[in-house]
TrEMBL record:
PANTHER family: UDP-3-O-ACYLGLUCOSAMINE N-ACYLTRANSFERASE, UDP-3-O-ACYLGLUCOSAMINE N-ACYLTRANSFERASE 1, MITOCHONDRIAL-RELATED. Its EC number is 2.3.1.191. Homotrimer. Pathway: Bacterial outer membrane biogenesis; LPS lipid A biosynthesis. Catalyzes the N-acylation of UDP-3-O-acylglucosamine using 3-hydroxyacyl-ACP as the acyl donor. Is involved in the biosynthesis of lipid A, a phosphorylated glycolipid that anchors the lipopolysaccharide to the outer membrane of the cell. Residues 35-101 form the UDP-3-O-[3-hydroxymyristoyl] glucosamine N-acyltransferase non-repeat region domain. This is UDP-3-O-acylglucosamine N-acyltransferase. Pfam families: Hexapep, LpxD. It is an enzyme of class 2 (transferase).
């Protein structure tokens, strides 16, 4: 089904030539043909664009009513009559760009809502949008094109680069954000980290958390995820990194560019991740570890030792993938033998 116009503005109709250009693909046919939106193979209509990136759905391609399909060259001949094949080496990426052509991200509507609270000395770009009941702390800086949603809070001294977006009820303190950073609803950035010192009497005294959070350009933080500020140094995520919903990042974590952390995963304090590390859902990394660039941490893995670059690990405690599956195979064989002799 097409995107619901109540929630998603649409720029259509769009010319086939422009759709193909957005996809980075080639086509044969009338470049002036018009399309109104995008949809899945199964339900897209003649004026909609779909895509195929997984051969599991090849049967749907043969039956699709879509007017155009973004796909790879080796399946282009399978499109039905009347459907245009838009051929690209990266169909999923190409379709993402086509979808963004029809449904671009919201842009700021400059202005400050009368219920918003703007602190003393705060510098808000006249090109920014400040929503209902939002709070901008003293001395904060809000860049051009930023969108601050309802009830969002920007703490004192926080700096937001251009085109950042804070969704409803997100909050950020003690932080510097680059361009195009997105905090989804309920995200928390810059709060006090989990640090304390035990006393001889068995009590705990909070260790002052005196660092910041630094988020590079185009970092996205999912709904209800938390990034603690550093204790003495800074907590850092590099350009283009993405955190899913319900992710916990401890103080002083330093992650490079393009890191991916999937839902319910957690990284303990002072762990260091190289560029393009990927963490599966519910995985955990212990504190003070080094995770090399390009490493991949499987879902529910418990990482308790350093992981070399470009290494895949899984299990708890985490092992390299091949060793893990060899061990599992051995356990199954052992279990089978015991079952026969028992």
């Amino acid at each position: 089904m097409a995107a619901d116009s109540r929630f998603f503005a649409c720029t259509g109709p769009q010319r086939l030539a422009d759709v193909a250009a957005a996809a980075g693909g080639s086509f044969t046919g009338d470049g002036e043909r018009r399309f109104t939106g995008v949809g899945p193979l199964r339900s897209a209509g003649p004026d909609e664009v779909s895509f195929l990136d997984n051969r599991r759905y090849a049967a749907q391609l043969a039956e699709t009513k879509a007017g155009a399909v973004v796909l790879m060259a080796d399946v282009a001949a399978q499109v039905p009559s009347g459907t245009v094949a838009i051929v690209t080496a990266t169909p999923y990426l190409g379709f993402a760009r086509v979808a963004a052509l029809f449904h671009p991200a919201p842009v700021a509507r400059p202005g400050i809502h009368p219920t918003a609270v703007i602190g003393a000395g705060a510098r808000v770009s006249p090109e920014a949008e400040i929503g209902p009941y939002a709070v901008i702390g003293d001395g904060a800086e809000i860049g051009a094109g930023c969108i601050i949603g309802p009830h969002a809070v920007v703490g004192p001294g926080v700096v937001l680069g251009p085109r950042c977006r804070l969704h409803a009820h997100a909050s950020v303190s003690h932080a510097m954000l680059g361009a195009g950073v997105v905090l989804h609803p309920g995200a928390r950035v810059g709060q006090e980290g989990f640090g304390f010192a035990p006393t001889p009497t068995g009590d705990f005294e909070t260790m002052p958390q005196l660092g910041r959070v630094l988020l590079g350009d185009r970092v996205e933080v999912g709904a209800n995820s938390c990034i603690d500020r550093g204790s003495q140094g800074d907590t850092v995520f590099g350009r283009g990194s993405r955190l899913d919903n319900l992710v916990q990042i401890g103080h002083n974590v330093r992650a490079g560019r393009g890191c991916i952390v999937v839902g319910q995963a957690g990284i303990s304090g002072s762990a260091v991740l190289g560029d393009y590390v990927q963490m599966g859902a519910q995985a955990g990394i212990a504190g003070h570890l080094q995770i090399g660039a390009g490493a991949r941490i499987g879902a529910q893995a418990g990482v308790m030792n350093d992981v070399p670059a470009k290494t895949d690990v899984i299990g708890s405690p985490a092992w390299p993938v091949r060793e893990f599956w060899r061990a599992i195979a051995g356990l199954r064989r052992l279990g089978g033998k015991q079952g026969k002799t028992g």
